[in-house]
Amino acid sequence: MDSNSNCRKQGAVVLVTSAEEVLTVVNIARDNRIQFVVSAERHSTGGASSVEGGIIIDLRKMRKVTVDPEAKTITAEGGCTWEDVDVEAAKYGLATVGGTVNHTGIGGLTLGGGFGWLSSKYGLTIDNLLSATMVLANGSIVIASSTENPDLFWAIRGCGASFGVAVDFTYRAYEQKDPVWAGLLGFTADKLQGIVKFANWHHGANTGDQCFLFGFSVPPPTNQPMTLCAVFFCGAQQAAEEYFAELTALGPVINQVGSMPYEKVNGMLNAAVNFGGRKTGGGSAVKLPLEPLFVQEVFDDFARFVGSHRGVGESLILFEIIPFKKIAEVPLEATAHGSRSEYYNVGSLFKWYEPELDATVRAFSRFVNQKIREQGGTMAERGVGAYSNYIEYQLNPEKIFGVNAEKLRQLKLKYDPENLFWRWHNVLLE
Which pairs count as long-range contacts for 364-370, CB under 8 Å and 24+ apart, including other chains? Predict the structure, then answer.
């Protein structure tokens, strides 16, 4: 799903199976000055998992997951998807903080911070990362944890793709035996104001057991721009139905909500971010409460664009109202992640098929994300109000990592002075 992989011809794709094989490829690329990138499932928003004429270190064959039910830990190789992790952990009644799409690779999401359905209860994915095995630019394989190379461990929790290749991760796990109540609801355009009202209520009413996402797409077979909602309640069905009653009372025309095992939850958005086509991702952020007229403007912009350009109806803009209280409990300087503010991410994924639309779609993606960024409310002081995994182009590091940018520069000079790992976000960019 790399935003630029459709346009790039790789020089070689190396399907590695071990840390030692990764190390061999890194050494060859470094010694011969060959550009390279690391890839698992190619979900990067800014082209960081493809490179013209260079080498892709493809981790897809490294998919082993090991669960320690006594220690409540999950160790997964760098090529795993979140489905791999979720399914194996569920065999032991456990789960960890993953993403919201289960065919996403664990590596990119983790190293950039990581938001998921359980973030409201347990924080970011990096807040639950215990260690990682890293292949570094100097040709070494090391462990990064709170006790081994702690400065590297600090850096990879939010900026990991800029410091090496993560070949495995160990996460803290939590008991998750009971089913959850979750699914998708689809509403006609006239119900948007009621949905915004519910989002504002949810912002103040949630207990950390509930998540709510809403956004704009053109789901089949309607072929009309609609508001899609993804709901999640970690608890009993009756309590969940009471919590979301005001939303369901709006009369959804699509209703795919019900009780399900947790390992199924991360698959409910898969169809909205499926494979194929040409794509570009992006992101912004908002503070709540949301102004209904502002959200209506974004919907109208989206509807006009998809209605006037052929083959872009599979695109998506998504307001992710995942409660932030647990995330904000962690000090901003505790990890490299650039924001722990009182804001919510807005992600976008534009999909099209005709090469001649490349510039047009990317320009609209930047326009609408900038509009949301400017009108979505002033961000809190604790961070930059941006999610690095959603930023689709190179920015000054201060705009991504805020007060952590200078420390990242110093650590970059220690661990990767030749800046081999620069394609995700270039920490040394001035």
Answer: 364/305, 365/280, 365/281, 365/282, 365/392, 366/282, 366/392, 367/301, 368/298, 368/301, 368/302, 368/305, 368/317, 369/282, 369/283, 369/284, 370/284
Please provide the DSSP assignment of 85-102 as one string.
Answer: HHHHHHTTTEE----SST
Could you read off the pLDDT of 404-416 as tens digits, one per residue?
999 999 999 999 9
Same domain, 37 and 75: no
pLDDT at 1 over 60: no
Structural domain includes residue 51: yes
Distance CA 356, CA 19 (A): 41
> What's the CATH number where 133 sits?
3.30.465.10
- CB of 162 closer than 8 Å to CB of 422: yes
Task: Give the number of domains in the chain.
Answer: 3
Q: Is residue 420 part of a domain?
A: no
Highest mean pLDDT among 83-97, 220-234, 379-393: 83-97
From residue 127, alpha-carbon distances to 110, 120, 173 in Å are 10, 12, 11
Q: Tell me which residue of 121, 84, 119 sits closest to 387, measured CA to CA.
A: 119
Give the pLDDT of residue 409: 96
From the list 1, 90, 95, the residue with the least C-alpha distance to 43 is 1
pLDDT given at position 219? 86
Query: For position 41, what pLDDT does the model report?
Result: 63
CATH code at position 17: 3.30.43.10
Q: In the chain, pLDDT over 90 holds for what percent of residues?
A: 78
**Domain assignment of residue 410, given as a range:** 65-176+404-415
Does residue 399 belong to any structural domain of this protein?
no
Mean of pLDDT values over 198-202 = 98
Starting at the earlier edge strand, list the strands of the sheet with 12-15: 12-15, 55-58, 36-39
User: What confidence score (pLDDT) does residue 308 get?
Assistant: 95
CB 274 within 8 A of CB 347: no
Percent of the residues in the chain that have a pLDDT greater than 70, as a whole number:
94
Helix 150-159, helix 405-415: angle, nearest 10:
120
Mean pLDDT of the chain: 92
Q: Distance between CA atoms of 5 and 49, rounded to whole angstroms?
A: 8
Q: DSSP code of 128?
A: G
Sign of CA dihedral 180, 79, 390, 13: negative
Both tokens assigned to 360: 């047009």
Contacts of 30 (CB under 8 A, 6+ apart): 137, 139, 418, 420
